[in-house]
Amino acid sequence: MNPMEPTLYSQAAAASAASAAAAASAAAITRGRSIGVILIDSGRLSADNAERILRLQKEQGKRFGDAAIELGLLTEDDIRFALSSQFDYPYLPLGDNSLSHELVAAYKPFSPVVEQLRALRSQLMLRWFDAAAQRKSLAIVSPGAGEGRSFIAANLAIVFSQLGERTLLIDADLRTPRQHELFKLGNNAGLSGLLAGRANAEAVVRVPSLLGLSILPAGAIPPNPQELLGRPAFIETLLTVSRDFDVVIIDTPAASEYADAQTIAVRAGAALMLARKNRSSLPDMAQIASSLQQSGATLVGSVLNDV
Fold it and tell me: Which of 60, 86, 112 is where one domain is finished?
């Protein structure tokens, strides 16, 4: 890795910190506003209808949201949107198409699937992530294709960012990357260019609509992914980003098809094993678990994906 890259990372982190400070200031202003004002400012409610809601609220002693829904002027989604703004819990309205709707944590944060992701987040906070012990990186691994690694990695990164953790999602699947599609990013500059010395910290992209979340896409698909991931530059990259982020989630290729996943998990220090109902092979999972443990990577746990 170019010796100047840590400096570039620091510059990127400073810019990200400045953006985060501005966002935090805006969030503080939002917290001080009422639900009605938030909805008016967002175009979801007219001032006249807000007056109607306030009258009913005063007459019957109802909460603003209950009065609005009774009058048919707002939906549950509108109220959740306003509450998320008040409590710094960013998520996107269903009509927003800036990201893929596979990112359920961004679009349906109150759904059962996302509740399960939050439960998983809690377990990972207890079992692995520890800033004081420098346990910040986690690889998401599974045996084969189509088992949901990218889905889990992306949505898990979102729920960590919603907790207030500075979160980085790295797409280390240098064979069939998906994170740039899910977050609708370009895939020119990314991890592959960084490891080859052809890109710098600008490859890390902050997601404006999800405070605290940044993405390092895979970049151009290289002819030698395993060799790139085996270079010291990958270790240096993880060490560098761990200084700027609290949580680093890493997407990986199919572990039974390529050795990349094992290399990534060892570099990260830990892995979360994913299995898909009626699809994943138990013998393959056992083999991967054994290989990871023999390589010195911590297998934090396993998750059954039935989505």
Answer: 86
CA separation, residue 179 to residues 34, 88, 154 (Å) = 36, 24, 7
**14 has a pLDDT exceeding 50:** no
User: From CA 274, how far away is CA 88, in angstroms rounded?
Assistant: 30
Q: How many domains does the chain have?
A: 2
Residue 6 in this model has a pLDDT that exceeds 80: no
Half-sphere exposure of 143 toward its Cβ, with a 13 Å CA cutoff?
18
Compute, in degrees rounded to 10, the torsion defined by CA atoms 117, 123, 128, 130: 90
Beta strands (DSSP E) in the chain are 137-141, 167-171, 205-206, 213-216, 247-251, 270-276, 298-305
Residue appearing with tokens 């297998």: 299
Per-residue model confidence (pLDDT) at position 186: 81
Q: Is the same domain home to 66 and 133?
A: no
pTM of the model: 0.79
What residues contact 95, with CB distance under 8 A and at least 6 apart? none
| Confidence (pLDDT) at 303 | 94
With H, G, I as helix, E, B as strand and everything else as coil, classify residue 102.
Answer: coil
Quote the Cα angle for 83-111-92, to 5°.
50
Tens of pLDDT, residues 55-114:
999 999 998 989 999 999 998 878 877 877 776 677 787 788 999 999 999 999 889 999
